Amino acid sequence: MRILPLTSQNRKNILSELLKRSPNHYASYMDQVNVIIQRVRDEGDAALFDYTRRFDQCELTAEKLAVTEEEIAAAYEQTAPDFLATLRRARENIRAYHEKQRRFSWFDSTPGGSILGQKVTPLQSVGVYVPGGKAAYPSSVLMNIVPAKVAGVDQIVMVTPPGKDGRVNPGTLVAAKEAGADRVYKVGGAQAVAALAFGTESIPKVDKIVGPGNIFVALAKKAVFGYVSIDSIAGPSEILVLADETADPRYVAADLLSQAEHDELASAILVTTSKELAEAVSVLVHDMAFGLSRREIIEKSLENYGYILVAPSMDEAVEAVNEIASEHLEIMTKDPFCLMPRIRNAGAIFLGPYSSEPLGDYFAGPNHVLPTNGTAKFFSPLSVDDFVKKSSLIAYTEKDLREAWPDVVRFAEHEGLTAHANSVQVRFAQEGESNEPNG
């Protein structure tokens, strides 16, 4: 990995390079995505079957589109018992963590008897997109469905691309069943997003779409936003390690590699105050990569988006960390809890040498659906909040309105909205009270 001094110019250059990976920079695909979406809106299932034939080399019919109970049972038979036990332990950790995020309706009364409050209502239906093809990600199934179940969503519909044989990866199906998906359909790509957003003869329209996917899925989610809600537009994976001279270079190198193997566009960055650590990590990353199965992807990722930045002070290191706003941030310093309050921007924060990033990907409980491409400056991880909506409640008594109406009228007249003013005044005009606010 290249070692650079942490200067303002280097920081600016790196941020510029990282932002080029955003789905917002792939507008050339947008016309193709829009054509797919419109066809699904116009032709429904027929468009889904055509695109599945073209993109997945799989023949689908209305009878084969939905995953059956028999297919789910077969998936369980193909799943190793030890993996099923691990999946269930992870599910319970995820459930327990997200249970703590639940919000409840609340009501507060004034001395005059009026009631103000907030009503929290689960979304009625949610669509979950799960990538398929060569890779299978049961962990993503759990991370997207479990918080929706905790929130109380009525219907959870999952879509995932089939293989050429028309089947879905067994691990994905088992995870869907364990997490609580109500229906699973064998369709992927932008066409699946369109089906969830607008509905077809077989797939019901949902209120919100969540889950990661390729660039076509990301752009499709962006295109249907407004017709439905979405979680976010996910970019490539990222890790940033903030370390001082006390960090073990083996741990740092291994954790950087854990994200570089995701994708050629993945980013792995070390920011450290120790030149010795920087040099040791650079060597170890190179040596460790030789023994890894995704070595070619790792090398491409590190060549394009791998950096080791040596900072003159921890203050400047923290400043760079906040500016980069990484998806995953590991703090490997003498006292990570002392630095943690100074971190403003990060999707997930891992503290200390035994909190490696894959723990968050699979097992600890916090959600691994995180903001990328600097959006941790204003976005949060997927949570129970993403699967509920909030309604404000107002129930005024006559006494409280009598006291408040002059102020309401004054505001309305200031904005030139006389019907607004009249809406309050009419409630007291029959009593012969003045239509003019006092004061």
Description:
A hairpin with a 5-residue loop joins strand 2 (106-109) and strand 3 (115-122). It is built from 18 helices and 14 strands. The model has no long low-confidence stretch (mean pLDDT 93). The chain has 439 residues and is α/β, with parallel strands linked by helices.
Q: Strand order, main sheet: write it out.
A: 1-11-10-9-12-13
Distance between the termini: 71 Å
Biggest beta-sheet profile: 6 strands, parallel
Oligomeric status: single chain
Assign a percent range to the helix content: 40-55%
Taking pLDDT < 50 over at least 5 consecutive residues as the criterion, the unreliable ranges are: none
SS field, number of helical segments? 18
| Strand residue percentage | 15-25%
Radius of gyration: 26 Å
Report the strand count.
Answer: 14
Label the overall shape.
globular
Average pLDDT number? 93
Which structural class is indicated by helix and strand composition? alpha/beta
Record the SSE blueprint.
Layout: E1 2-5, H1 8-19, H2 30-43, H3 45-56, H4 62-65, H5 69-77, H6 81-99, E2 106-109, E3 115-122, E4 125-129, H7 138-151, E5 155-160, H8 170-179, E6 183-186, H9 189-198, E7 208-210, H10 215-224, E8 229-230, E9 238-243, H11 249-260, E10 267-272, H12 275-289, H13 295-305, E11 306-310, H14 314-324, E12 328-332, H15 336-339, E13 348-351, H16 357-362, E14 388-395, H17 398-414, H18 418-429
